[in-house]
Write a structure and sequence with these properties.
With 285 residues, this protein is α/β, with parallel strands linked by helices. It is built from 9 helices and 13 strands. It folds into 3 domains: 82 residues, Arc Repressor Mutant, subunit A (Orthogonal Bundle); 100 residues, Periplasmic binding protein-like II (D-Maltodextrin-Binding Protein, domain 2), CATH 3.40.190.10; 96 residues, D-Maltodextrin-Binding Protein, domain 2, CATH 3.40.190. Helix 1 crosses helix 2. Belongs to the LysR transcriptional regulatory family.
Length: 285
């Protein structure tokens, strides 16, 4: 068992792909494949299920990954401890976010202060981002309304309200505020289950004892915006997610003012790492 084999395995497990792991390690995909296969052959294990360019951990792989993550985090902490400089000149930080709007501002400030740190960013819905943190596929996350967990550090960054996005020729287009009761009989465009937008909306609908009527479900905020723009119905977004588009108009939803809380999230164990702590401090400030 060599350090390079464990490093290759850990990178593939984090990235879920041999090709992305190769980019992370500045190696070729065949080189990463050889390292992982040598590790598997040496111990008679199958660590990944390979399919369609994706690498999914087996049960043996997951058990090893839990240990390699701890190992490489400890290794980084040792390197930090031994370093005589407090500057973060080199390193890597993997960020997961449920949208670019809050995340990109923080990333921009971090890169300006620590240009030597390599950043990689993955986007998903709120639930997938939370799972990225818990499974250690990401070091830090920027997401909304994250559920509390004893394993997590969670800090609130900002508050937003939900809005209804309507086509400019719709009868509600001149309204600045709309109640959910007024929308239940409309053609509605919803985000997928697992998204923060859908979770907040579902919770309020349930509390008001309201049910959806005609619904079109789409998997991204970009798709929701375009569907509204071409007249397919009324969509739901948070106020920072609105883009300038003269085909649509936005109105606050009366019951969902200040319903979204953007947060910075990481594992408590990860906060020991200087690079994670630096990113969290920039987000907090």
């Amino acid at each position: 068992m060599r350090h390079s084999q464990l490093r290759a395995f850990d990178a593939v497990a984090r990235e879920g792909s041999f090709s992305r792991a190769a980019l992370l390690l500045n190696l070729t995909p065949p080189a990463v494949t050889i390292q992982v296969r040598s590790l598997e052959d040496a111990y008679g294990l199958t660590l990944f299920i390979r399919s369609g360019g994706k690498a999914t951990l087996t049960e043996d792989g997951q058990g090893l990954y839990d240990k390699t993550r701890r190992f490489f985090i400890e290794e980084e902490e040792i390197r930090d401890h031994l370093s005589s400089s407090s500057a973060l000149d080199i390193g890597h930080l993997k960020i997961s976010a449920d949208g670019p709007h809050v995340a990109l501002n923080i990333i921009s400030m971090f890169r300006e202060k620590y240009p030597g740190i390599k950043l990689s960013v993955s986007l998903g819905n709120a639930e997938s981002v939370r799972q990225d943190i818990l499974a250690q596929r990401a070091d830090v996350a920027i997401t909304a309304n994250c559920r509390t967990d004893d394993r997590l550090v969670i800090d609130e960054l900002s508050v937003q309200s939900m809005i209804a996005l309507v086509h400019r020729e719709h009868s509600l287009a001149d309204r600045s505020e709309i109640s959910l009761v007024e929308l239940v009989d409309e053609q509605l465009i919803l985000r997928e289950r697992g998204s923060n937008t859908r979770r907040v909306l579902d919770k309020e609908m349930k509390s008001l004892n309201l049910r959806y009527g005609n619904v079109l479900e789409l998997g991204s905020r970009e798709a929701v915006r375009e569907a509204v723009a071409v007249g397919l119905g009324i969509g739901f977004l948070f106020e920072h997610e609105i883009l300038g588009d003269d085909r649509t108009c936005a109105a606050f939803i009366q019951e969902l003012r200040n319903s979204n809380r953007d947060m910075i999230v990481c594992l408590k164990s990860q906060l020991k790492r200087r690079v994670v702590k630096a990113f969290v401090e920039i987000a907090r400030n």
